[in-house]
Structures are given as structure tokens and as C-alpha cells.
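Section 3.1 - Work completed
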Amino acid sequence: MKQIAIFASGAGTNAARIIDHFRHHPAVKISLIVCNKPGAGVLGIAEKERIPTILLEKEPFFRGNGYVDELRERKIDFLVLAGFLWKIPATLVKAYKGRIINIHPALLPKYGGKGMYGHFVHEAVIAAKEKETGITIHYVDELYDHGQAIFQASVGVDPADTPESLARKVHKLEHEFFPRIIEEVVHLQNQR
């Protein structure tokens, strides 16, 4: 059984979809929710689903060992970032090399990097008059939104789109594809 930790900072809609997808999975279990914001919606989801949580503190996360010991103690095999806004420290990237994936609400390499999340991405896409946007699921390395892309899906940008309407379109893609791609990536890891 592969144990997954979901890292999230907000409402947890992607986390909820992922939990649901793997609820009765024979080889994958969502074993931990890791959050950096007290009171975030994802913590309520974890409580409802009876999934243990870790509430990150900035100092040990960035200046300590990135909670590697705690993750190993809980036998976590794989990390999934689902709306997690902190940059992953090098110690954690090194400890889980090739076993951390993220979802980004744009077609990377466009509209990635520090500060490019949520509505900031959708505002930038509209301001640039892009004809399409979408999602990128990628491996995590030491830089923001930089690791090797695993999967992309796109959606059209209409002239009447607002950041809110674009966010809804992108969320649909996230919910449709993220759990399936996680399953494929974990399955590939098992083959190695």
C-alpha cells in the first residue's frame, strides 16, 4: 500500500476529490493532510474523513529538515501538492525526489513562478488575451512551477471570461484529471 500525503493551503476541493478517488483503492491510501494555514477548509475535510494532519510551522519547514522525519515516521511514500502555496524546501525535494507532484492552474511554462497562483494566474491569462489556458501537473523541484511536466489539459478562453469564470473552467479540469494522473504516477513509481 502506497501512502500519500496531500499538502494544501485552502478550501481543499482538489484534496476532497483525491480522497474520494482513492477511498477504496487497493494499492493507494491518502494517509495524511499537511497544511500551513490554521482554519483552512482542508483541515475540516481531513477531520470529517478521519485523516491525520500536520499543521506546518514556517521555521522548522524552511530552516529545519522540512518535516522529512515526520513524513518518514508515518511511512509516507508520495507527496501531492493540491493548492499548497509555500515553496517546497530543498531538503524535502531531495528526500522525495521524483515523488512530489503539483498541479498548476495554467499551461506551464507560461504563468508560473512566485506569486502566480489562483486568481493572479487567471487575471494574467485574460490580460494577455490568451486563447487558451488549462492545467499542468508536474514533478516538483527546487524552483516554483519548474519541474518536468507530466500532463497538461487545456480549455478555451472566451472574450467574456472573467477571472472567476476562468477559475471555474480550470477547476473542472483539475477535478477531472488530477486524481487519475496521481494514480498513474504512483503506479509508474511501483514499476521502478
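Second construct:
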Amino acid sequence: MNGDAGVGENEGPVSIFDGDSATKWCVGNETPTAEWKMTEAVTVNYYYFTTANDAPERNPAGWVLYGSADGSTWTELSKVEGATLPTEFFTDSEQYKVENPQSFQFYKLEITAIAEPGKGLLQFSELKLFQSAK
């Protein structure tokens, strides 16, 4: 897992996949990026974000999800702008669908906007990917 470092000791990008909504990725950057490698190629069909424990103004509001076979050449899978995640803490967002699902081993998430720009921080608790093995 690679990504922008978290502002706290336990607030790095690995937190978005730890299955624990009590942890979060909190970044001192409104447009961070995280990249990860799956153990095998999978097809992501849809996904959810889970909000964190405070400050809903830091929720993602825009992002791009990419897939790659080699970790170098990226294919855009999902682009969302103007999203409104729940303001309640530890709550799943609506389902976001991958319009053209393909099988990849590498994935990248680029956050392009937060709920209230100018706050200087991005945060969310989990990124839940729903996938089928290929």
C-alpha cells in the first residue's frame, strides 16, 4: 500500500482497508492518492466509502478510481464529482458503480475534492470494494 502519509500515527492509507471503522485515513492534503496491489487480479464492480469519526467537511467529494495490470499504465474505472457522503460518523456512502469493470491486480484512488474545500484535510474510514475474482 502506497499513499500520502496520515496526520496521526494510525491514520495512514492502510487504515482504509483494515476493516475497522474506528480507524481512518486522515491526510493533511485535500487531494491525496493511494495505490495498492491485490493478491490476484480482481474485477471491482462497485464500492462504498465509510465516513470517519468527526469533521464531515473532510469527506471526499470527488475522486477517480483506476486499475492497472502492471502498476504503471492506469485505466480509469470510475470518476465521481460533486458527491455528498453522509455527515453521520461511521456511515456507508451510497453505492458507486464501476461502469466498465475490468480485471486488475493494481488499483489507485485519487481524491480530487473534499466536501468543504479549503479545510486542508481529507479523511474517511474505509473503502469497501466489491469484486469478483477473475
